[in-house]
């Protein structure tokens, strides 16, 4: 049982309540600051600009994050995890985004913890958890979560990859998955396919498939606008045969596994970007205090200072909504509204804030050397992955009682 499920008696204990309140009131919370300081010291290297240009993943940095315990922060200690609460995890991962300038490396880590790791621990069989979780947590293996297809994005359950059962009980997969984070370096894939195309979403089934399985073909790392240091690619299945033991849950339970994973993803996948947004804000304040034009710091011009005030508002809104989603999930309550609001505020706020930072920095914001433009490129993807903004607004509208 992982840390989210472990503390769900309806009411959090006094320690959990104090932590949540402390996180809300203290933007410089020691858990966040501790990881941010560690990341500045251990995840800063002079190859970032080159790695960003060449779309290169930093294995050594990923391993350092694992060694710090962050890849297993939520996982049960039985698998080598830290067994920490969701609120603690959010604070520490936010600190990672704040302290580490390689947003792609942070995205690789948060995807591992919040998407792949959580789903494996919640829905994997004992054998799957025992085989893979310790290696994922230690950074010795990489996992990828693969739902999207070229023709099914927001409409995820219209997927067409098939997994047809054979007489001996094994399954044969055929189809293509798109935009799979970490695929080029993955050792194992969580894959959603239909075991019965006639059943629509009720035919969707999850599988756990090692990357070296014959018939599973991983595409080349695809260059993209941002998060270029997180590799991603398509994966194709050509008569890829897997045993029944590759099933995660029962046949047809994939839609509920996916939906449950999405609630965690919506609530917290932007945690690294929220940390990065604070860094973007701090950099903008420093720059606006020191850069002078017309004989005075540009921060004394209202046009500039108000832009930075807007970044502050975006950051504060995003982090508070994320803590609310964490608190609700920790209490075992539905966090659908909070998670959708958190995703929307985190992604849209980070994008708007990073764009404002480019403007505040003038030409220095636009050239590669200073990293401000890199943050804008990196933070723009959040409005697409983990459910695009339009989908989050649909969820919010539906929960408000508006007709679909
Ligand atoms: C950096 C990155 C990493 C990713 N990693 C993964 C991964 O690891 N695994 C994985 O499975 N997928 C991954 N994805 C894919 C991602 O989940 C999809 O891109 C996303 O779900 C949107 O699907 P789409 O790109 O097909 O866009 P579409 O679904 O075609 O949407 C295009 C536009 O139409 C809007 N739209 C669509 N339907 C509606 C509607 N009903 N109402 C209102 N607006 C709507 C959307 O908001 C969007 O603006 C990743 C994507 C990116 C960019």
Summed up:
The protein has 404 residues and is of the alpha+beta class. The protein folds into three domains: 3-142, Acyl-CoA dehydrogenase/oxidase, N-terminal domain (Butyryl-Coa Dehydrogenase, subunit A, domain 1), CATH 1.10.540; 144-252, Butyryl-CoA Dehydrogenase, subunit A, domain 2, CATH 2.40.110; 257-399, Butyryl-CoA Dehydrogenase, subunit A, domain 3 (Up-down Bundle). Helices cover 51% and strands 13% of the residues.
Output the CATH class name of the largest domain. Answer: Mainly Alpha
CATH superfamily of the largest domain: Butyryl-CoA Dehydrogenase, subunit A, domain 3
Which structural class should the secondary elements be placed in? alpha+beta
**Basic shape:** globular
Task: Tell me the fraction of residues in β-strands, as a range.
Answer: 5-15%
Cofactors and ligands: flavin-adenine dinucleotide
How many separate domains make up the residues? Answer: 3
Mean pLDDT: 95
Count of helical segments? 15
H/E element order: HHHHHHHHEEEEEEEEHHEEHHHHH
Total E-strand runs: 10
Which terms would index this structure?
404 residues; alpha+beta; Butyryl-CoA Dehydrogenase, subunit A, domain 2; Butyryl-CoA Dehydrogenase, subunit A, domain 3; 3 domains; 4-stranded mixed sheet; 51% helix; globular; disordered N terminus; binds flavin-adenine dinucleotide
Describe the structure.
- By secondary structure, this protein is of the alpha+beta class.
- The protein has three domains: 3-142, Butyryl-Coa Dehydrogenase, subunit A, domain 1 (Orthogonal Bundle); 144-252, Butyryl-CoA Dehydrogenase, subunit A, domain 2, CATH 2.40.110; 257-399, Butyryl-CoA Dehydrogenase, subunit A, domain 3 (Up-down Bundle), CATH 1.20.140.
- Helices cover 51% and strands 13% of the residues.
- The strands form three sheets. It has a four-stranded mixed β-sheet. A four-stranded antiparallel β-sheet has the order 2-3-7-6, with no helix packed on it.
- It binds flavin-adenine dinucleotide.
- Residues 145-148, 153-154, 179-181, 227, 232, 381, 384-385, 387-391, 394 line the site of flavin-adenine dinucleotide.
């Amino acid at each position: 049982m992982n840390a989210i499920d472990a503390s769900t008696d309806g009411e959090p204990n006094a320690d959990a309540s104090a932590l949540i309140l402390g996180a809300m009131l203290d933007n410089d919370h020691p858990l966040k600051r501790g990881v941010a300081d560690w990341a500045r010291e251990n995840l800063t290297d002079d190859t970032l600009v080159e790695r960003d240009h060449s779309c290169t993943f930093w294995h050594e940095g990923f391993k350092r994050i694992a060694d710090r315990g962050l890849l297993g922060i939520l996982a049960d200690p039985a698998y080598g995890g830290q067994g920490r609460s969701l609120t603690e995890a959010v604070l520490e991962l936010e600190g990672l985004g704040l302290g580490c300038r390689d947003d792609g490396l942070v995205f690789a880590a948060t995807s591992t913890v919040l998407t792949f790791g959580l789903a494996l621990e919640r829905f994997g069989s004992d054998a799957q958890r025992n085989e893979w979780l310790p290696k994922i947590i230690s950074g010795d293996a990489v996992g990828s979560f693969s739902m999207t297809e070229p023709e099914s994005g927001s409409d995820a359950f219209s997927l067409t990859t098939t997994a047809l059962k054979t007489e001996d009980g094994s399954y044969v997969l055929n189809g293509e998955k798109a935009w799979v984070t970490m695929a080029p370096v993955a050792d194992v894939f969580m894959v959603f396919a239909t075991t019965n195309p006639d059943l629509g979403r009720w035919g969707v089934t999850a599988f756990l498939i090692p990357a070296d399985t014959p018939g599973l073909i991983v595409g080349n790392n695809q260059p993209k606008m941002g998060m270029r240091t997180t590799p991603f690619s398509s994966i194709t299945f050509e008569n890829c045969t897997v045993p029944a033991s590759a099933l995660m849950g029962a046949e047809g339970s994939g839609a509920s596994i996916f939906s449950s994973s999405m609630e965690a993803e919506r609530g917290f996948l932007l945690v690294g970007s929220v940390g990065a947004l604070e860094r973007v804000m701090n950099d903008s304040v420093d720059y606006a205090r020191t850069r002078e034009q017309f004989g005075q710091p540009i921060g004394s011009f209202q046009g500039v200072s108000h832009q930075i005030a807007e970044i502050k508002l975006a950051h504060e809104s995003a982090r508070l909504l994320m803590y609310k989603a964490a608190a609700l999930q920790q209490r075992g309550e539905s966090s659908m509204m909070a998670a959708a609001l958190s995703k929307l505020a985190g992604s849209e706020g980070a994008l708007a804030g990073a764009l404002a930072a480019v403007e505040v920095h003038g030409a220095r914001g636009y050239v590669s050397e200073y990293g401000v433009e890199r943050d804008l490129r990196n933070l723009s993807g959040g409005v697409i992955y983990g459910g695009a903004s339009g989908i989050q607004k649909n969820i919010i509208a539906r929960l408000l009682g508006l007709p679909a």
